[in-house]
Structures are given as C-alpha cells and as structure tokens.
Design a protein that fits this description.
Layout (H helix, E strand, L loop, with lengths): L3 E2 L5 H12 L2 E2 H11 L4 E2 L2 H14 L2 E7 L5 E7 L1 H26 L3
Parallel strand pairs: 1-3
Antiparallel strand pairs: 2-5, 4-5
Helix pairs in contact: 1-4, 2-3
Length: 110
C-alpha cells in the first residue's frame, strides 16, 4: 500500500489529537503513531513535523521538556496545554466543516 502526505491544513489537528490520546510524546513518536493509526497511509515527514511542533510551542498549544528516550537518546518531549486542548476543538470543528463541504460537492448529482 502506498503512503500519502498529510493533507494540507491537517497537521496541527493530527498532532493535537495524537497528544490527546497518547499523552507525552517525542517527535518520532508522533510520526510513528500517526502512521500506525492511519494504517500506514499517512506519513509525517520530519521536515514538516518539527517546524509544526515549534510553531505550536510559540502559540502555547504545547509545552516541551528535554528528556531521554528508551534508546538512551536525548529528545524533546511534548505535552498538551490548556490552550492546546481548546485549539484541538477548533481544529476538529474546522476539519468537520471542510469535510462536510467536500462531501456535498462530491455527492452532487449534477
């Protein structure tokens, strides 16, 4: 099965939802979790993931702390903030509105 890139405008949603479900994660764990839960269809590239996490830090949606992985490597671990929980609701609402609009166009018979 081929892998697809993350649809534009959904990376924040996927990262925030992954945090909501999994809790504290480091960067590679986000990518692995999204790929696993999408049944290997979605692939998050490092070149997209880490800049998005940095922007989310600046916006206050996540907090970060340095730690050590199970493999004894230094990694930055991310957690949800109250603003991040609020933003997840915003991102979910936006996604649902867009998907409903896309479905209306696709299901139009004329």
């Amino acid at each position: 099965m081929s892998r697809d890139e993350i649809p534009p405008g959904t990376l924040y949603l996927l990262i925030l939802k992954t945090l909501a479900v999994r809790g504290v994660l480091h960067g590679c764990e986000f990518a692995e979790s999204i790929q696993h839960h999408s049944e290997d269809i979605l692939q998050v590239e490092e070149g997209s993931l880490y800049p998005a996490l940095q922007r989310m830090l600046v916006k206050g949606w996540v907090a970060a702390e340095w730690g050590v992985t199970a493999g004894n490597r230094r990694a930055r671990y991310f957690t949800f903030t109250a603003d991040g929980r609020k933003q997840l609701a915003v991102e979910l609402n936006k996604f649902e509105r867009i998907m409903a609009a896309v479905n209306r166009v696709i299901l139009t018979s004329q």
